[in-house]
Write a structure and sequence with these properties.
By secondary structure, the protein is an all-alpha fold. The protein folds into 2 domains: 110 residues, no CATH class; 34 residues, no CATH class. Helices cover 58% and strands 0% of the residues. The chain contains 6 helices and no strands. Helix 5 packs antiparallel against helix 6. It starts with a helix and ends with a helix.
């Protein structure tokens, strides 16, 4: 569960991205209403001058501030992994700091589909095209050949092992 909300590595599909966003939205809207509903606020007016009258208002503000920081970190991590899902750099998440653009940015990254197969950030979280099917997924075949060549160049495979594995991939 912590990986879903606070990890910055890997990929995140659209459904889980919206789950994180809607969870924090519901919590940040729901908590103040719960405080109000269960009479954490006294019966007096909630005018700005009355804030010093009730310690409950101060405590509610502290809880809300901590929750806001936690939700912002979680939203940033989900946005970074969502950007990774369609092959973009996580640095685009800095657009969340631009007032007025953060809402549009969240909508855009929440609507763009996942990149099929694996990319530099990991395998597709939906499992689509993460395995090699002969003739159906040429990008996986090329990736496997590149990975195999890298292992051979590092000396981790013998020439015979390299040739056998290469023939298996190419035979497909």
């Amino acid at each position: 569960m912590l990986k879903l909300f606070f990890s910055f590595s890997g990929r995140l599909n659209r459904a889980r991205f919206w789950l994180v966003i809607l969870f924090w939205l519901a919590l940040r809207i729901g908590i103040p209403y719960l405080f109000y509903f269960y009479h954490a606020y006294p019966g007096q007016s909630l005018d700005i001058n009355d804030v010093t009258v009730s310690p409950y208002l101060y405590e509610t503000g502290e809880v809300f501030m901590v929750m806001t920081v936690i939700s912002w970190i979680s939203t940033v991590s989900a946005s970074v992994r969502r950007l990774h899902d369609f092959g973009s750099s996580g640095w685009w998440v800095l657009l969340l700091l631009v007032p007025g653009i953060e809402f549009i940015f969240t909508l855009i990254i929440g609507l763009i589909g996942s990149q099929r197969g694996t990319n530099e950030y990991g395998v597709n979280p939906l499992g689509e095209n993460n395995f090699y099917i002969p003739g159906a997924n040429e990008e996986m075949r090329v990736k496997e050949l590149k990975d195999l060549a890298a292992l051979y160049e590092k000396g981790l495979l013998s020439a015979e092992e390299y040739q056998t594995a290469k023939n298996q991939i190419l035979k497909g």
